[in-house]
């Protein structure tokens, strides 16, 4: 997993803004002109702090094109969290997000799901109307035990908060369960023994 402590995967249709979301989080920048479509998947990582410790979050940005659909299973295997994205102004991308979630549930039962409505700035600026209400998306997320958040990669709205929430909820269980987790040597001084925070 390229040296990362835990794995997060971005899933969703083409052009919903997965790459923009990752670039805003990793590089804190937004590219106005369209990105070249992701081929297969792209990887990035970032050190993140949670519960007084630092960990490396590995993020896989997968291609949304149907022709790469079969490959996506390779990238979400063993992921601790999946950000399933849809465009707030395109209903078809919400329907596709639901299909991704069904797929995840069938193959990665322990993967926590974060449903992400992207391009909130487009709605807030009145450029396009939302394709579904906040309440409907939230109700769906609650029904499947997922977290729902609306983001804007252009303004940065809720981007850092989303990834921080993932770290706070997922990182420590993933570290405890890793085969190559940190092995602590017994201390000769019992009063000086250390342990992983729980």
TrEMBL record:
<dbReference type="GO" id="GO:0005525">
    <property type="term" value="F:GTP binding"/>
</dbReference>
<dbReference type="InterPro" id="IPR027417">
    <property type="entry name" value="P-loop_NTPase"/>
</dbReference>
<comment type="similarity">
    <text>Belongs to the small GTPase superfamily. Rab family.</text>
</comment>
<dbReference type="GO" id="GO:0003924">
    <property type="term" value="F:GTPase activity"/>
</dbReference>
<dbReference type="InterPro" id="IPR005225">
    <property type="entry name" value="Small_GTP-bd"/>
</dbReference>
<dbReference type="Pfam" id="PF00071">
    <property type="entry name" value="Ras"/>
</dbReference>
<keyword id="KW-0547">Nucleotide-binding</keyword>
<dbReference type="InterPro" id="IPR001806">
    <property type="entry name" value="Small_GTPase"/>
</dbReference>
<protein>
    <submittedName>
        <fullName>Ras-related protein Rab-24-like</fullName>
    </submittedName>
</protein>
């Amino acid at each position: 997993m390229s040296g990362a402590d835990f794995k997060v995967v971005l899933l969703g249709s083409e052009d919903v803004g997965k790459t923009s979301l990752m670039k805003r989080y990793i590089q804190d920048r937004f590219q106005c002109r369209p990105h070249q479509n992701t081929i297969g998947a792209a990887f990035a990582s970032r050190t993140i702090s949670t519960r007084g410790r630092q960990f490396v979050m590995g993020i896989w940005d997968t291609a949304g094109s149907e022709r790469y659909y079969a490959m996506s299973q390779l990238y979400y295997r063993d992921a601790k969290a999946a950000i399933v994205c849809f465009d707030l102004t395109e209903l078809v991308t919400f329907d596709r997000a639901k299909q991704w979630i069904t797929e995840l549930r069938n193959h990665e039962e322990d993967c926590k799901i974060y449903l992400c409505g992207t391009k909130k700035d487009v709605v807030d600026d009145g450029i396009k109307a939302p394709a579904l209400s906040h309440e409907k998306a939230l109700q769906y997320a609650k029904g499947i035990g997922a977290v729902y958040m609306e983001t804007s990669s252009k303004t940065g709205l809720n981007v850092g908060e989303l990834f921080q929430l993932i770290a706070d909820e997922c990182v420590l269980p993933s570290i405890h369960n890793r085969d190559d987790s940190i092995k602590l040597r017994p201390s000769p001084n019992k009063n000086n023994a250390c342990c992983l925070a729980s």
